[in-house]
Amino acid sequence: MESHKEVVERLRGAFRSGVTLPAHFRLTQLKAMLLMLEDNEAQILEALHQDLAKPKFEAVLSEIEIVVNDLCLTISNLHTWMQPSYVDKNLATKLDDCFVRREPFGVVLIIGAWNYPLQLILLPLIGAIAAGNCAVLKPSEISKSTEKLISELIPKYLSKDCYAVVCGGPEETKSLLENRFDHIFYTGSQNVARCILQAAAVHLTPVTLELGGKCPCLIHGRIDMKAAAKRLVWAKFFNLGQSCVAPDYVLCTAETREALLPFIKEALEIFYGSEPEKSEDLGRIVTDRHWNRLVELLNKSKGKVAIGGESDRDKKYIAPTVVVDVQESDALMQEEIFGPILPILTIKSLEKGIDFINEREKPLALYVFSDESQIVTTVLERTSSGGFCSNDGIVHMSLPGLPFGGVGASGMGSYHGRWGFETFSHKRGCMLRGWGLERINVLRYPPYKDSNLSWLRWATTTKKKGWTECTIM
Ligand code: NAD
């Protein structure tokens, strides 16, 4: 079996041969990925069912269609994205060609997490291929069936010279990271991200980190409670709460909470029936270890279980659970929940809610539910988060035109659609000069003269366009 070093060297050889550079090659690979998804939908759904008991509906939307959409957008636009972008010039560079060229980094490493095990490997891979890179893929070892399927399908459909899958857990990943990559794209927890950054520092490798954290859902002002409850319940319990962008906790006034709870109860019953453990529309917790962590969190919480709370270790099941009277110091508020438990915290005012959010790490997503647009705008303008969505949850990440990524502790860099292409491209600033305008050029040569400096300042000045409205006092 090839060592990690041999895999990386083989891919580097392919990259240096220039095979990935033509648009035609990239498009062929992207179309092959599309075919891979079409040909193997049943196997993909089966693997996701084995790993997470993912309902078909959720798997199709969040693991297949999201990738297909991104592929279609990328295939349709790749020629345009690959064009150089020309920049503004000054008098001194008037005759030059000044442009930004998007170039591939080389051999990149993509490390995925288990909660959307296919999507989190394939979506970054689209960006990597589109930008002309070779790629090593390291799916999560926790979602075993999908890991195995990815390792079988990628070499079958994509160029074996340019793309490779390495399986295994932390030890294999650490050994893989000893090699020099030209970019590392990591999806997973904040703790492991620190190891990734340290390994990348050895080779000064640029890194994209797609991490998690606690995504708040602030509900305030006038609102259609019934619709709000439905959207909140769907976003929270999709994939049984194991989504990096799931609403982690709700912030609202005590009156809003009282009005909302019956509608949450109603929505849960409509969605999953009176015995949710029998519903085929709820997934399962990925492993016993993750189940234990969640049940322990619930046991440690000093809040009051208002809805749900039941669990079954053998079935890795935890009921959709809502906990009220949760304080800031509660166990549920100390880490990302990443499961079907929704704490509701009460705030006295919108101001307090904004302060609560701003006192914590910047979240991957921030949700505001309100009929009052002024409230939505206020929260948008006064907070920071990776993404933002009003009156819904999760859905903003399905639109490939929007960049997806974190800020601060929730990550660095972004992808999806063109943003993925940009992430995996080096932006090379190019100036192609001829021998013209030598009269202006000689101004910069020694012996230096004050008169030449004045001319040069004039010739290289950027025009102050559109400055009238911000006059300096
Ligand atoms: P995980 O355990 O599957 O780990 C992610 C990857 O890191 C895996 O491929 C794993 O093999 C590797 N890994 C684990 N330990 C390692 C180590 N010590 N050294 C090197 N590599 C190691 O997934 P996870 O970390 O439990 O993922 C859950 C987290 O990911 C949550 O915080 C979630 O919010 C976040 N997440 C973020 C996004 C996003 O797009 N921003 C998407 C999904 C999940």
Strand order of the largest sheet: 10-13-14-9-8-15-16
Low-confidence stretches: none
State the name of the first-level CATH class of the largest domain: Alpha Beta
Structural class designation: alpha/beta
Helical content stands at 40-55%
Annotated CATH topology of the largest domain: Aldehyde Dehydrogenase, Chain A, domain 1
Q: How many domains in all?
A: 2
Characterization of the model:
The strands form four sheets. The chain has a seven-stranded mixed beta sheet, sandwiched between helices. It has helices at 4-17, 23-39, 41-52, 56-82, 119-130, 144-157, 170-177, 190-203, 225-237, 254-272, 288-300, 350-358, 373-382, 418-423, 438-441, 450-460; strands at 85-86, 97-104, 107-111, 134-138, 163-165, 183-187, 207-210, 215-219, 247-252, 304-307, 311-312, 317-318, 321-324, 341-346, 365-369, 387-390, 411-412, 425-432. The radius of gyration is 26 Å and the shape is globular. It has two domains: 4-211 and 415-426, Aldehyde Dehydrogenase, Chain A, domain 1 (3-Layer(aba) Sandwich), CATH 3.40.605.10; 216-399, Aldehyde Dehydrogenase, Chain A, domain 2 (3-Layer(aba) Sandwich), CATH 3.40.309.10. The termini are far apart. It has 16 helices and 18 strands. Helix 2 (23-39) packs antiparallel against helix 4. With 473 residues, it is α/β, with parallel strands linked by helices. The chain binds nicotinamide-adenine-dinucleotide. Residues 111-115, 120, 138, 140-142, 169-170, 173-174, 187-189, 192, 195, 210-212, 244, 336, 338, 364, 406, 411 line the site of nicotinamide-adenine-dinucleotide.
